[in-house]
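Structure in, sequence out. Go:
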């Protein structure tokens, strides 16, 4: 398969030209260039038909999309663009899972969109019911596909426009469903029109910031590049685009690489379960350990793994999340196995219960974020109106949104989540 961006960068490097153009390192990083002659332009690629447009077209065919746009600003830029596209089509209110990443709320603030929150039954869960009743009053729906613990939503077809945040699931498109089943599907396999924002860098061998914005057949993507140019840097990274392009070639050369990585992780899960390591059910490229069943908090468990040579993706009071990738090998899994098996086991301790708080809205997000604010200790925030999002990353999920009232229960929950200070409206300033 062609890799037009990679080919151009390699050719340009071999020509050894005097680089009297940006960036200022003057070729020290030879593939890091800007929009020189022949290099195409990310936000104008639809018109130019150059190397970026060619590479995006290849990616669209690989994923089964009507249109794929590269993002050098991660899923965040893809989400911003998707919501801008919907707003241009008349959408005013988005129904969204409260599990949604803060990029959804940030984009709603900038675009002046109202959000109707749909609450999961468990903190940090993507398992939200998308029913006609819950979607009532919304013009579109925003759905996270895989949560940080590896859970997913129940697939339904809403009768309104759909944006799926598939940040953790780009690899699902290339997973052999005959071996792993259909519980975890790539959004483009669902068979109805939707827009899909997904990180490549989370589970594919792509540089940080590399992501896709896919438009399924039946969606209008005519203004996608225009809106991406509004939110994205006017100097997108060619190194990131090169890595996205290179993955197209890697997949063409070895289409079964993703499935093999998932098989290696599945074998590791089986070994750990047989050894008595308490695991939570999760997607094929993730292992979630219930740390407190081993007598440790998730933080303590992660600290032991770190001493054993393994850095985890995320930990909290109860669990440790290990995120593998399409580049994972059997040797990687063997190393992870030894690190996990050498974690000492103690008497199980009760899990910390994280409440699902449902703050009441005082004003829309897009009003609150631009009003004067002040920072106050959480214990003094009762009765105040939130003005800034608290979203520890990972997972980047806001606990309370701008414009929501911080009542006694919300303040208690924030303290339990470890939040010490929070921005609230400064009502002394107008």
């Amino acid at each position: 398969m062609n890799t037009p961006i990679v080919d151009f960068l390699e050719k340009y490097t071999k020509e050894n030209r005097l680089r009297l153009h940006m960036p200022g390192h003057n070729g020290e990083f030879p593939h890091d260039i800007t929009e020189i002659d022949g290099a195409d332009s990310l936000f104008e690629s639809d018109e130019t038909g150059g190397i970026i447009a060619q590479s995006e077209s290849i990616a669209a065919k690989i994923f089964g999309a009507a249109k794929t746009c590269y993002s050098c600003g991660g899923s965040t830029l893809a989400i911003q663009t998707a919501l801008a596209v919907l707003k241009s089509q008349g959408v005013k209110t988005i129904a969204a899972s409260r599990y949604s990443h803060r990029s959804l709320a940030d984009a709603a603030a900038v675009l002046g969109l109202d959000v109707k929150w749909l609450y999961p039954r468990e903190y940090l869960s993507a398992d939200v019911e998308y029913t006609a009743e819950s979607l009532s009053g919304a013009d579109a729906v925003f759905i996270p596909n895989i949560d940080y613990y590896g859970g997913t939503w129940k697939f339904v077809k809403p009768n309104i426009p759909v944006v799926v945040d598939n940040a953790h699931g780009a690899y699902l498109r290339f997973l052999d469903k005959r071996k792993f089943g259909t519980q975890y599907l790539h959004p483009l396999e669902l068979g109805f029109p939707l827009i899909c924002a997904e990180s490549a860098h989370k589970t594919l061998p792509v540089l940080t910031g590399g992501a896709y914005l896919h438009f399924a057949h039946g969606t209008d993507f005519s203004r996608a590049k225009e809106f991406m140019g509004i939110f994205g840097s006017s100097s997108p990274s060619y190194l990131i685009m090169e890595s996205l392009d290179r993955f197209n070639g890697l997949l063409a050369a070895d289409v079964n690489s993703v499935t093999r990585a998932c098989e290696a992780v599945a074998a590791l899960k089986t070994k750990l379960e047989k050894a008595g390591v308490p695991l939570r059910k999760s997607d094929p490229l993730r292992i979630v350990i219930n740390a407190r069943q081993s007598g440790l908090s998730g933080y303590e468990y992660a600290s032991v793994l770190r001493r054993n040579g393994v850095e985890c993706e995320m930990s909290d009071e109860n669990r440790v999340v290990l995120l593998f990738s399409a580049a994972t090998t059997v040797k990687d899994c063997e190393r992870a196995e030894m690190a996990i098996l050498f974690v000492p086991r103690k008497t199980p301790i009760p899990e910390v219960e994280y409440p699902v708080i449902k703050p009441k809205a005082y004003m829309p997000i897009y009003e609150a974020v631009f009003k004067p604010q002040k920072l106050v200790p959480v214990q003094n925030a009762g009765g105040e109106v939130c003005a800034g999002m608290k979203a520890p990353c990972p997972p980047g999920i806001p606990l309370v949104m701008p414009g929501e009232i911080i009542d006694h229960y919300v303040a208690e929950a924030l303290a339990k989540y470890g939040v010490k200070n929070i921005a609230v409206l400064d009502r002394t300033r107008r």
